[in-house]
Design goal:
Elements lengths: L8 E2 L2 E2 L5 E2 L46
Antiparallel strand pairs: 1-2, 2-3
Length: 67
Amino acid sequence: MSSWSCAYDEGGICHKVAGAYCRPGMKGCILFGKVKFQDGIVPAPVWPEGSGPAAGEPQPSSNGRPT
């Protein structure tokens, strides 16, 4: 078992990926491209209800993957 901490994670919100929920390894994350997941799927950014990605950020789709 392992753990890590991130300077951009504040209360489960990522300040590197424009206020998206912290999902280690998602596009824009400091771990993106540095880790591999057992299922081979890279998590997509997900924003809290009522907020959204900044201009230029990938848009989440209904299946949780960026469009």
